[in-house]
TrEMBL record:
Gene3D superfamilies: 2.40.160.20. Belongs to the OmpW/AlkL family. InterPro entries: OMP/PagP_B-barrel, OMPW. GO terms for biological process: transmembrane transport. Keywords: Signal. Residues 1-24 form the signal peptide. It comes from Xanthobacter flavus. GO terms for cellular component: outer membrane. Pfam families: OmpW. This is Outer membrane protein.
Length: 228
């Protein structure tokens, strides 16, 4: 074979070897892909909860020794709106209404039911959210409550009217969200509201009885969380 033919064969073999090496390198070298970037969450969050409201149920009528009050429990729906200032600090506004019966207790147990009243108790809390537990998102909070009383009815024939005064209160809170994904979660929440409004009863004879109701409810809630 001529030298020219040997050169052609050698060049062809060298080209095949180089191409094979490049292909092997391409197969063994991982292809870099930029990590997917998640859009930041909105600072807004809402929850829809069912609440079990359990008043402390106490109080007294001025001038009647041993008098006390009993206030019924209530189960109601509730909506709350949360705004996150940072991933840990948030403010929550709780909205809902609750109906309650007011009954005589202690030395005035014989009066039975004194009246019925509805409460509108918007509560604003400042919260700290713990973020180092994966899908488990516990939080604590404290804030203020303003309770407005409406649809007040004296249901006992001995009284012609019932007036419970609106009042400010202090609130403590603890709870957690269990997040199913970035947006949806399950919530459990407990609040204690310190609320002691004054009230005024008018008898059918025109006399007035006044006193203080120690409502101070525990509020147990469970529901669904959605983070925008």
């Amino acid at each position: 074979m001529s030298k020219l033919g040997l050169g052609i064969i050698f060049a062809a073999g060298l080209s095949a070897l180089v191409a094979g090496s490049a292909t092997a390198a391409d197969l063994s070298t991982p292809v870099y892909k930029a990590p997917a970037v998640e859009e930041p969450l909105s600072p807004w969050q809402i929850r829809v909860r069912a609440l079990y409201v359990v008043p402390e149920a106490g109080g007294s009528v001025t001038g009647i020794p041993g008098s006390d009050l009993s206030i019924s429990n209530s189960v109601v729906p509730e909506l709350d709106i949360t705004y996150y200032f940072t991933k840990n600090i948030a403010a929550e506004l709780i909205l809902g209404v609750t109906p309650h019966d007011i009954n005589g207790a202690g030395t005035i147990t014989g009066l039975g039911q004194v009246g019925k009243v509805w409460l509108l108790p918007p509560t604003l809390t400042l919260q700290y959210h713990f973020t180092d537990f994966g899908p488990f998102k516990p939080y604590i909070g404290a804030g203020v409550n303003y309770t407005a009383f409406f649809s007040q009815d004296a249901t006992n024939p001995a009284f012609s009217s019932l007036k419970v005064n609106d009042a400010w209160g202090f609130a403590l809170q603890a709870g957690f969200d269990w997040m199913i994904d970035r947006h949806w979660g399950f919530n459990v929440d407990v609040k204690k509201i310190f609320l002691q409004p004054d009230f005024l009863l008018q008898t059918v004879g025109g006399a007035y009885l006044q006193g203080s109701a120690q409502i101070n409810p525990w509020i147990f809630g469970t529901g669904v969380t959605y983070r925008f």
